[in-house]
Amino acid sequence: MKRLLRNIGWLLSGRGVNAVLSLVYLAIATRTLGLDGFGYFALIVALGQTVTGIANFQTWQFVVRWGAGEDGPAEATGFAIALDILSIVLGTVLAAALCWSAQFWLPLPPDLLWLAFGFCMVSLLAIRTTPTGLLRLRFEYGRATAAEAVQPIIRALGAILAAIFMPTVTGFILAWAAAEVCVAAALWFAAGRTERIDFSQISLFRLPREHAGAWKFVWSTNLTGSLNVGSKQVLILLVGAIGGEAFAGGFRVASQLGQALVSLAQTVSKAIYPELVHARDNAHDMARRMANIALVGGALAVLVAIFLGRPGLVLIAGPEFRVVYWAMVILAIAGAIELVGASLESLLVSAGRAGTAFVMRAVPTIIGLSLLQVAMDWNGLKGAAFTVLGASALSVIGFWVAVISLSQITITVEPKTDSRD
Fold first, then answer.
1. How distant is the alpha carbon of residue 172 from its chain centre?
2. Are residues 345 and 198 in the same domain?
3. Are 51 and 120 contacting, i.e. CB atoms less than 8 angstroms apart?
4. Fewest Cβ atoms closer than 10 Å to its Cβ: which of 154, 177, 289, 291?
């Protein structure tokens, strides 16, 4: 538990740097581009992150799961890199399809479609979950935090340069693309100094031959990651398709400020997963304690959003973004719920129930997306935020029920083992 809290401390320090610099580049981008221009920017970024999120396998989990054995992580790393290459190939096809069809369903001007495709390709080439997994496997959270800090620093500097020399959507997208490349390079460099990477081990078939459930785990975690993207980036795209670029920009701001807790939940999940893998006997107790801590932190964050959110929006994004206040508050509540559920979801995945976690995430997400247009017709951006809140609540309830079932199974199995002994 002490090591877990120390690792979360490293990750949170990185998130703290990211949060402060995020406010800097968000303020510069919104005030330079305005509501409509920021909407175009938000749609292009969402396209890139959608493609990467759907095509990208959660390879860091494979490295942690199969690299912790006596033989070391070489084979698991080779499998992860092979999956990264597959992600780039599949993602290129998906990016081409989405960017070509965007003219029919997204409010993006034709001259920005090639820019969107270019950003998608840069995002794919900058996939970095494998080096992240190597660093987490060795509990090198300090190095990982230092490497990941490159991204917000480059984004903030790039936003300043864009505002001065190229105050357009293109200028800010170039700044974001540069940050993606730099953070990927920093993480690979840090991972290479921690663990020797044997490129001769790259193979899609070697590890699955030795681990029967490998491909099932791969697809379950990939689909879960894709759903996490669907609940955020695809949602921004659909909000833009239904309400236009101004709605997309407003929802992006509300989401980035209100759902900061979702990023925190992902941070907790990434820190606790390796610990749950290594300490199976105490996994339930560890997850329960983390959920209790998260409940208190989430409640405090929601109160901050309610009482300081409106002046914060005006200060950061400008007066025209004041209208997204209630959407931001609703998304903050959803983020608090996700924060509580993060350790429960990680517990399920670490116990080999990635498929169960996927189902518990998939069904509410699909319901939320299917109701999006009805919700927006009812109450605009607030309606869209309510779909996120409902999906998060249903998912976390599902995680809780599944964890209780898992706990009961463990309890019933242990006495049988004792009696045989």
1. 21
2. no
3. yes
4. 289
φ/ψ of residue 140, rounded to 5: -90, 60
Supply the range of the domain harboring residue 117: 1-211
Residues in the chain: 421
CA 222 to chain centre: 12
Structure tokens at 122: 């840069």
> Is residue 277 within 8 Å of residue 350, measured between CB atoms?
yes
Q: Looking at the domain assignment, is residue 414 inside a domain?
A: no
| pLDDT tens-digit map of 241-300 | 999 999 999 999 998 887 665 565 555 555 555 555 555 556 566 666 666 666 777 777
Q: Which carries the bigger pLDDT value, residue 229 or residue 27?
A: 27
Domain count, the chain: 2
Amino acid in position 288: R
CA 60 – CA 129 distance, rounded (Å): 5
Instruction: Report the alpha-carbon distance of residue 221 to residue 129 in Å, rounded.
Output: 13
Domain-ending residue, one of 196, 211, 226: 211
Residues 199 and 333 grouped into a single domain: no
Alpha-carbon distance 245 to 42, whole Å? 8
Summarised one tens digit per residue, pLDDT across range 295-353 is: 777 777 788 888 888 898 888 888 888 889 999 999 989 988 888 887 778 778 777 78
